[in-house]
Each structure stands twice: as structure tokens, then as C-alpha cells.
Description:
By secondary structure, this protein is of the alpha+beta class.
Amino acid sequence: xxxxxxxxxxxxxxxxxxxxxxxxxxxxxxxxxxxxxxxxxxxxxxxxxxxxxxxxxxxxxxxxxxxxxxxxxxxxxxxxxxxxxxxxxxxxxxxxxxxxxxxxxxxxxxxxxxxxxxxxxxxxxxxxxxxxxxxxxxxxxxxxxxxxxxxxxxxxxxxxxxxxxxxxxxxxxxxxxxxxxxxxxxxxxxxxxxxxxxxxxxxxxxxxxxxxxxxxxxxxxxxxxxxxxxxxxxxxxxxxxxxxxxxxxxxxxxxxxxxxxxxxxxxxxxxxxxxxxxxxxxxxxxxxxxxxxxxxxxxx
Length: 300
């Protein structure tokens, strides 16, 4: 069945009801999402924001049925408008390339739903088929590629899966005069504590970053980073492990603000000095060599 239309650029989420003792769909959703208050769910039902797999709007007293597919819209009450703006660098029938500023999430999460890059693009182009081909942290600025055509999406996704796309980042971090550049950091990166942090550990390496220096000053260097693999927070973890944590990073090498335990990766007053500078690849549809460059800059 077709998905319900987006509201304010936010697509409906899908959820399949698990086995349980509940009498109504409302009771089931309250139990399955304990961090969302019952009044919030009741309001969504009352405003027609919960429907079944066929798109029929459900009432709060709709009977529970195990395995039923439910569509609902995530919302954040009084979600503030983020005072940052993205720049569209390229649009065609298949691809959208966006230059993302620091502090703008790519997809909904936590306290950001309508104020995300994806929701903004859906509102701008009126296309619910837009999907990010990769992700950037909210705190990271730079290039993000989106698929605009489901028919060709898999071919562009394969570029990332097969490591056929050259990604270059820039970062400002403390000097490392004791090391010889260029170098490679090849380690094992796994989930850490709290849940949104990563860490290096012993074992088979699963994260590879090529690192060079492009500019030097007394207090900070500009590093060129090329992630060969795509582990979460890979560049930030690798730079911190080398002894040069990226300037403005609130998570590495240690959690600097206890408030981030709830916020996850909120941008600090000094933005994380990490920029997805360029993307280059051979277009899988027509064989053209494509290269995109961010127009943003870091604070050296």
C-alpha cells in the first residue's frame, strides 16, 4: 500500500505491533514507546496522525491486533527553527547534492524532526522519494548526497558499498609534530559508552582513514582526512586516538558536557571543525566523472 503523505516534510513512520496483552492500539503504542507520554499519543490519534496499513485513520480505541502495521507521524512539540541554511549545489532527476551547515541534522532523531535536512528537502521539492545516500553527523558540515529516484537509487548506493566514491574531509586539530605524514590509521572501532559514542578496541581492524596535513600554524593544523571505511564517528575517533582531537568536539576523547547524555551530538558553541569537503565518483548511469566541492570553510 502507498505510504501516507508527509506532513511538514516529515514522512510517516511504520511500526508493526508485537505480541502483548493490550486491548487497544493506543495502549500498545504507549507500552512500546514508554518515553512518549500517553497524552502525546492520544493527541496524535485525535488529530488523525495514526493510521493502519491501508491508510485508514485510527481512533484511540481501535482494537489491538498482533502483527498489525501502524503508520504514525513523529513530532516534537514547539520544535524550534534552526537558524542555519543549507545550499543546494546540484539537482537532477536522480541526485541532489547539498552543502550542509554545522548543526543541521540530516534525518529525524531526538529533538529534531521537521528541522532536518531531509524534511527541508521534501518540503522544498515536494518529493517523498528523496532519501539520503549516506549520513553526516549533525555537528559535521559539508556535502551530502540524496537519491531522488527510487529506480536508480541502488546503483548510487553501490558506490558507497563498493567504496567507489572518493570522500575527502578537512579537520582542524592540534599539531602532531612527532608523527610522519601522510599516514594511515587502521583500527577496530566499536560502540562505546554512552550509546552514542564509539571507541577503539583490540581485534581485527574495521576502520581505515588516510590522514595528511595541508596547513600548519603554531596552535593548530589543517588535516586532510580520507575515510576508506564508513564507521560511525570514525574520523573523530581516529584523530582523538592519535592525540589530536578535532577542535570543538564535545564527545572525543571524552564527553565534555553531561547534558549531551540526552542530546547525543548537539553542536557546541564552537562548531566541530570537521568538513566533508569533496565527493568524486564515476556516475553509474552514464559514466561521467563527477566531483562536488563544499563552499564552506573551517576556522584555522
